[in-house]
């Protein structure tokens, strides 16, 4: 034990005698460990940490499956859900969920809140218990029961001051009194940011609704039942329903997926790619420190030889040198934890606001994260220190004692240092290529036309409360009155409304019958439907391809009409014009005449395909869920206050709702990629800097240790340009070898992040070539100062050194 303590003291003193070396090594390790720990905190919270439910491994989601359409996550119809719940043999509980919003009125300014409407067993499925009061019980979702509500802990604290007396009182939600029966615990998290929870009341007619699909279904496995057994059981049940209801359920199945797998499916590839990128930073930093240790070992040949000569064993020498590496890693780890704590705060700011599941996770520096950091410190100390320690312990004692132990570097040591630099260059190229591919993706996405003009358009999403707006006439009167008031505001050029605005994440789809078109079993005839007011198309400046737009002629008493988009026209009418033909929706017996063809609009994202869509006149299909759009002559946000006043003039109890510009919606649609790019670019820049420092360090040491050789070359007539070419050529050879290796590795990473790319192949030669040229340029730039120093070697001084 005393020997170990003595070695620790010796290692500490040795590092203290070389503050420049120690500072450079600690800085490299601090940055590498810091960024890796920050990324791992996100990976752990999202992919590894236990979900805050009871036995979360038993919780699953059950989707409708349509294998012939390659769809495994379709929403479920009410009748199918009720049959699944009553007839399945593999789940202990099953519950339905639908996201919506309500208006909280009273006790302050009216506020629009995200609301989760769920069947009574929802919290039993999750295994969540109330912090105060109770959660839903059997019967709470039945008609005739009193209206109840459960509040989240955050809303209870913010709006009600954490008063426990709020349980048992009533609150006004969208004009209807609801009794508060419980408060959810503070650690409750859900993928959607609902603040209030309401029972989903299933009216008797839902037993027969199989055409409308709008429910998410959650279920808890029975004890001992696994996901494969559950899939078999639900497939059997779905097949039976297909036989019983062929008109609606033919070729419809079910798909069971564990809840965690469903929640992380969209972010797992991105997070694993980021963790791999951070791991590359660690490897680059370790190679950098190893090179520094190798160079330092060459300058310590006399010290090491003396230790071996006076009886130190090679094992103890290796231990001493590894202790130096461990102390460097420990210091880097302590600094890395500080960097990571800042990095976690930065990641919270960078995470897209619409990345709901990511946004609900806690990225704190937990015990598991700190254990990871500790393991990372041990790993970096071995990666950075083991090879230099072994190399130093194998040196010849006699050679080290000759001539005062002059620092020399044999061919083997020089090849080893060059190999480490090659590895740094290769890893850096992978990160640069990844960042370059993401940059090209975002550039190409910004060039995609969304199908409408986004500038100077303000979007207000609203949901009218059903109790006060129970009739179509009241709904129509409100929205028509609001649009009329908006058109009178200064600076407003146009105004209109739509039920599902593009890029909002909201959608609706229904089966249709096209007149004189025979149904095809392998191609279901479906369209995504939107309800629009007169002025909507003019506000967003959607191009009219044929026919006319809906206008004030298309009242509730006029013949039913609709507009289809270009994709629907091509798919269902081919080369013929759809104008004047008729379409029937779902099970309706009402035929609607096609009066126009609209240009395609990118609804689900700039990189998403366009689906067949149809637009119904608002007066003929009033909806309480609408997004009101205004086009202004200046900054659209300046109309927010007048818009609030217009709302108050129509209904003082209505909150302003969700207010965004269309430019924001476009920006949000690419925000996950922007988040990925920002981190990849940060890693790429850090890798480029570390690789450049590594090349500089190797070439500087190489020049210093080859002073005698350079002096001889100059004495024999070598020109300064020849010396420069010698040093720069060496750096270029190392760089080219590293780039060649890195290109192969970059092809593998490109396939790994393929899901994040758009319009560019993972093997894009332009991106890979640019990354390679950038690294070679950095290598030459890093070697320029050592090359310049080599030309200034005085041959008489250099020869005297021998």
Question: In terms of topology, how is this protein built?
Answer:
Elements: H1 2-16, H2 19-48, E1 59-66, E2 71-74, H3 78-87, E3 91-105, E4 111-118, H4 122-126, E5 132-133, E6 148-151, H5 153-160, E7 170-173, E8 176-183, E9 196-199, E10 216-221, H6 227-244, H7 246-249, E11 253-258, H8 259-264, H9 268-299, H10 301-309, H11 314-350, H12 356-359, H13 367-393, H14 397-401, H15 411-446, E12 457-463, H16 472-487, E13 492-498, E14 509-514, E15 526-532, H17 536-540, E16 544-547, E17 561-565, H18 566-573, E18 582-585, E19 591-598, E20 613-617, E21 625-632, H19 640-650, E22 658-661, H20 662-669, H21 671-705, H22 707-715, H23 720-752, H24 765-791, H25 795-800
Helix pairs in contact: 1-11, 2-9, 2-11, 2-13, 3-6, 9-13, 9-15, 9-21, 11-13, 15-21, 15-23, 15-24, 16-19, 21-24, 23-24
Low-confidence stretches: none
Sheet-strand content, in percent, reads 15-25%
Overall morphology:
elongated
- What order do the strands of the largest sheet run in, or round the barrel if closed? 3-4-9-6-8-7
Average pLDDT level = 84
Question: What report would you give on this structure?
Answer:
By secondary structure, the protein is α+β, with helices and mostly antiparallel strands. It folds into four domains: 1-55 and 269-408, no CATH class; 56-264, no CATH class; 416-448 and 671-802, no CATH class; 469-652, no CATH class. Helices cover 50% and strands 17% of the residues. It has 25 helices and 22 strands. The longest helix has 37 residues, at 314-350.
Short summary:
This protein has 802 residues and is α+β, with helices and mostly antiparallel strands. Helices cover 50% and strands 17% of the residues.
